[in-house]
Amino acid sequence: MAGAVLGTLVFAMGIGVLSDVIFHRAPPAKPGYEIAVAETPAAGESAPAEPQVPLPVLLAKANVTAGEAQAKKCQACHSLEKGGPNKVGPDLWSVVGRPVGEHAGFAYSAGMTKFSDGGKQHWTFENLFHFIAAPKTFVPGTAMGFAGIKKDQDRADLLAYLRTLADNPEPLPPVEDAGAAGAAPNGSAPSGGNAPANGAPAEGQPAPAQ
């Protein structure tokens, strides 16, 4: 019996040594698991990259319906209706064109207050376009914890929709290059730089009910 037990132990040890030889794995140079984390640029490290297609062209061919779908990402933290309540973020009615950090009744972060420069900065199409892409990069210190919308056209669609949320929608920026304007859908170039985004009201016309 003792011999059988001893033989079993020797056999088990042999199996262990053999498995180590067959399935040998070199130990990692650094113990633990490496977790890939996206690098966050330091405050003021670099300006947001300009879109490959100029923003006026993106807005000229923007789709308001697609922008309304993008706006659902905003509704967890913002109301969109006129006179809507401030939530985690301020109400976004008439946000396009209004002074930064000036919405009544909302307590802005120190970063946003600094960026507003006493209300001198406005939420222009350009500022909103870059802010929505990467809030914490464009406005260091902002409390907005949104990851951002990376695709240029998706952001342009969202801005085209937000533009309609106003009693007097901001005019679209003019498309200076007539050749670039020809990139508009169906081959039609916006005339005079004031062509509205798809579904958006023309300058001077009331916004449609949403």
Helical amount among residues, as a percent range? Answer: 25-40%
Please report the number of helical segments: 8
What's the total count of β strands? 0
Largest sheet: none
C-alpha Rg (nearest Å): 28 Å
Kindly name the structural category. Answer: mainly alpha
Unreliable stretches (pLDDT < 50, length at least 5) are: 32-47, 178-210
Q: What is the mean pLDDT?
A: 78
Give the overall shape: elongated
Q: Would you list the SSEs in sequence order as H and E?
A: HHHHHHHH
Strand content: under 5%
Spatial separation of the terminal alpha carbons: 87 Å
Task: Summarize the structure in words.
It contains eight helices and no strands. Helix content is 34%, strand content 0%. It is elongated, with a radius of gyration of 28 Å. It has helices at 2-22, 55-60, 64-70, 110-116, 125-133, 135-138, 152-164, 178-181. The N and C termini lie far apart (87 Å). α3 packs across α7 (152-164) and α5 (125-133) crosses α7. The protein is an all-alpha fold and 210 residues long. 25% of the residues are buried. The model is unreliable at 32-47 and 178-210 (pLDDT under 50).
